[in-house]
Design brief:
Layout: H1 3-42, H2 52-73, H3 76-84, H4 90-108, E1 113-114, H5 123-126, H6 129-152, H7 159-175, H8 182-215, H9 220-247, H10 256-284, H11 289-294, H12 297-332, E2 338-339, H13 343-371, H14 377-397, H15 403-421, H16 425-434, H17 438-453, H18 456-472, H19 482-494, H20 499-533
Antiparallel strand pairs: 1-2
Helix pairs in contact: 1-2, 1-13, 2-6, 2-12, 2-13, 3-4, 3-13, 3-14, 4-12, 4-13, 6-7, 6-12, 6-20, 7-20, 8-9, 8-14, 8-15, 9-10, 9-12, 9-14, 12-13, 12-14, 14-15, 16-17, 16-19, 18-19
């Protein structure tokens, strides 16, 4: 290795180290600001034990830490496909997500929060106010630590499942297994399967529909001018209903039928606007997939913005719901079944989401956007459409779903559909072998066997070497024609979903609830020992 190469490596390592320290420094400054502000709020506590102010400050820090980790991990589900498809740059996606996450949290995220998180624990079994505060504080810290670890290894996990598992674990540590509402937990476990499967199926159906009605046609741009407005209308209806039910649920109280009606009116307007734009584009653009792909760019950006708004409105409660419950309990020296979220608590959650996304979000955005399967604007559009339709359908049916699992399941669905559609090339490999005779056929069979069993990276190397050796006409290497090399290249592209990413993500999903439960129970035991000692 040359001295210059070593110098370049050292410079890159030094730059990466400085960036890591800068990120940590900004995060610590935010935590310091939360600490200072929380002390001003703790001074207003009128009831509770002497250590109540300190508990509120500690809980505020845990809530801020949790909010940053939600921003770093969960927001990637909305922005990953947008960045992976190159509809937005990384910086543009982060800025867009940060703005709409904060708007969603502040404008529509102040709804009344169930302090026991959908009835996960029985307050009568857990104990008094002091024990409840410890349960919520330990749950916040455990959920945040787990999300931090998941982000570090590049695994998008459900923040809802993280906090649910953490509350369950601390609740068991406080009151035994009888403290848990197991029916609720059973519904949550079922969502591990329901969420990704629904997301994957809907995304795959959307992509297959686009292929059959647009990209498989000779006149693709003309077909797109007819089909794209219908798809945009469907997306407008689903997002309109999603926003009215989930995003603006606190501001506008509508039942499903009313929300669907108003969303339908919005969809009709979007249809006519989209038809006008699509017809203009069809007249100007060439008849190609690239031209069709452009038509999905702007709707995809709007979809990502609306998903971020709705995410901020709903998932911010995972960070500051327990904090609001702690604040209310410490002020009244009693457990309130429901509590409104104070503005200062909401701001901690909103700013923490945005900051976590900006500092540590790019890692997971890259994972979702490109490390699972290759995405273009059309595929990313199908993922966004699937996310909205799945959540709307699940809300209507009363099924508990995770937006994280829906989005990642949609990515899997798109990737596996593409693999299925390309599987016919396996038969073409057999035809290649059959076309060769004698000694060349034996070499061909051996080479293709090695090619099919090789890892994806190795296949790329073999393809490059194959072209060089064919040009050199080496005697000990099977000769592939240009057409045969093209078939092998398609076979290389057939494995379009990285199995290592699938295994890592699914494993993280499965262990999220038990991992956060065990960690939270351990933290509760440590906290109990500390308080008993003093």
């Amino acid at each position: 290795m040359k001295l210059k190469d070593l110098s370049d490596i050292e410079k890159k390592a030094s730059a990466a180290s400085r960036l890591d320290f800068s990120r940590l420094g900004v995060a610590l400054l935010f935590m310091l600001a939360v600490f200072i502000y929380a002390t001003t709020q703790s001074d207003t506590l009128l009831n509770g034990a002497a250590y109540a102010p300190a508990l509120l400050v500690v809980a505020a820090l845990f809530g801020a830490y949790m909010a940053m980790n939600i921003g770093a991990n969960d927001v990637a589900n909305n922005m990953g496909p947008v960045v992976g498809s190159k509809a937005l740059t990384m910086a543009g996606a982060i800025a867009l997500a940060a703005i709409f996450e904060v708007l969603g949290a502040v404008i529509a995220g102040g709804e009344v929060v169930d302090t026991v998180k959908s009835g996960i624990i029985d307050l009568d079994v857990v104990g008094g106010a002091e024990t409840f505060v410890r349960v919520m504080a330990c749950a916040l810290l455990a959920g945040a630590i787990w999300l931090n670890l998941a982000t570090a290894i590049g695994a998008p996990v459900s923040t809802t499942h993280s906090i649910v598992g953490a509350i369950m674990g601390a609740g068991i540590a406080a009151g035994g297994f009888g403290a848990v509402q197991w029916e609720t937990m059973g519904a949550i476990v079922s969502s591990w399967v329901v969420s990704p499967v629904l997301g994957g199926i809907i995304a795959a159906i959307a992509l297959y529909t686009i292929k059959r009605t647009i990209t498989y046609r000779r006149e693709m741009t003309k077909a797109a001018a007819q089909v794209v407005p219908l798809l945009n209308a469907l997306m407008a209806w689903s997002f309109g209903g999603y926003m009215l039910i989930k995003g603006f649920g606190r501001l506008i109280a509508l039942d499903f039928a009313s929300a669907a009606l108003y969303a339908g009116i919005f969809a009709i307007v979007v249809y006519f606007l989209s038809r006008y734009v699509a017809k203009k584009a069809a007249q100007k653009n060439e008849n190609s997939k690239a031209a069709v792909n452009k038509l999905f760019g702007l709707p995809l950006v709007f979809a990502a913005a609306l998903l971020s708004f709705a995410h901020g409105a709903n998932d911010v409660a995972n960070a500051i719901g327990p904090l609001a419950a702690i604040d209310e309990t410490l002020r009244n020296a009693a457990i309130a079944s429901k509590t409104a979220i104070p503005l200062w608590v909401m701001l901690i959650g909103a700013l923490g989401l945005a900051l976590g996304l900006a500092l540590y979000g790019p890692r997971l955005i890259k994972t979702v956007g490109g490390e699972i399967t290759d995405l273009d604007k059309t595929r990313a559009y199908c993922i966004a459409l699937s996310a909205a339709l799945t959540v709307i359908a699940a809300s209507r049916l009363g099924l508990p779903v995770s937006t994280t699992h829906v989005a990642i399941g949609a990515v899997f669905g798109v990737g596996f559909l593409r693999e299925y559609l390309k599987s016919s090339h396996a038969k073409m490999l057999e035809l290649i072998v059959a076309a060769h005779e004698g000694e060349d056929r034996g070499r061909m069979e051996a080479y293709i066997a090695r090619f099919k069993s090789a890892a994806l990276e190795k296949k790329a190397i073999m393809l490059k070497a194959m072209k060089k050796k064919a040009a050199q006409k080496e005697a000990n290497h099977p000769h592939f024609s240009k057409k045969e090399r093209k078939v092998l290249k398609k076979e290389y592209k057939r494995e379009l979903v990285k199995r290592s990413a699938v295994k890592k993500i699914v494993a993280a999903w499965i262990i999220t609830v038990p991992a956060t439960a065990l960690l939270s129970a351990l933290l509760f035991a440590i906290a109990a020992a500390f308080f008993n000692a003093f």
